[in-house]
Amino acid sequence: MPSQDQRGSDAGRARPGGRHRAPTQPSSAGRALRTTGAIVAIAGTATAVSAMPAGAATADDFAKLRQCESGGNYSINTGNGFYGAYQFDLQTWHGLGYSGKPSDAPPALQDEAAHKLYNARGWSPWPSCSAKLGLTRNGPAPAGSDASTASPTVEAPAPMTLATARQELGGTGYSGTALSAAFADTVRADAYLWQNAMRQRKFVLTVDGKFGPQSQRLAAFYSYLTGASDGQSGVVGRNLWSVTVY
pLDDT digits over 45-89, tens only? Predict the structure, then answer.
């Protein structure tokens, strides 16, 4: 008599003449399992597609940041050179493409600007509060933070000119912030004034207010020529400013 193992083995072999037998219909239980599996797979795929990217910043992160920076006050202006809920300085605000003062802008526009700055530089523009709050997510800012959400009545800022740069800095005074590679993509009044001063000295230089590689190289060269140094090659601080801008 065949053993139980042999019977199991024989059961798995094709039987003679089996090609004409009616196909075996799947059981209702099998159909249910396969259907359930398909639904689970589809649901899992939908969840994966709609899930937030790992490490993405959240609206709650920015709410905590506002609270730390300004107590959540969008209209705050204490006269310390920083404005609004996220405490922007004017040069950064204008460099992001906005006009006027941050504290005068509607909350949605200030949020948009903060998201834009975060997407470009992470939490580094807010070193104290981001460290205090433990903000470590480095994914994109919350959805809806692009320029399409801005009010259509907001006008683009006027191009930087020598007159507006001097007005913003109160003449030709040093801003107190050293110009470095960190401002390569930001339009700043002090960078514009310095570039203009170097153009007056007959150096070939684009005057656009962005302290990019061209400006950095010229700063390093002029520091070498004059011996005026601000501690790092290619940086314009108070010492190099004093020998280039009147």
Answer: 333 333 444 577 898 999 999 999 999 999 999 888 999 999 999
Contact 2, 10 (CB under 8 A): yes
Burial class (CB in 10 A: 0-12, 13-18, 19+), 115: buried
The reported pTM is 0.41
Contact 197, 246 (CB under 8 A): yes
Topology of domain 59-149 in CATH is Lysozyme (1.10.530)
On whether the CB atoms of residues 207 and 217 are closer than 8 A, the answer is no
Residue spans of the domains in the chain: they are: 59-149, 162-242
Residue 101 structure tokens: 């003062």
DSSP letters, 36-90, are: HHHHHHHHHHHHHHHSPPTT---HHHHHHHHHHHHTT-TT-B-SSS-BTTTTB-H
Neighbouring residues of 100: CB distance < 8 A, sequence distance ≥ 6:
none
What is the DSSP code (8-state) at residue 179?
B
| Residues 86, 103: Cα–Cα separation, whole Å | 9
Q: 93 near 158, Cβ under 8 Å?
A: no
Q: How far apart are CA 182 and CA 159, in angstroms?
A: 21
Phi, psi angle pair for 163, to nearest 5°: -65, -45
Return the axis-axis angle of helices 59-70 and 107-121, rounded to nearest 10°. Answer: 100
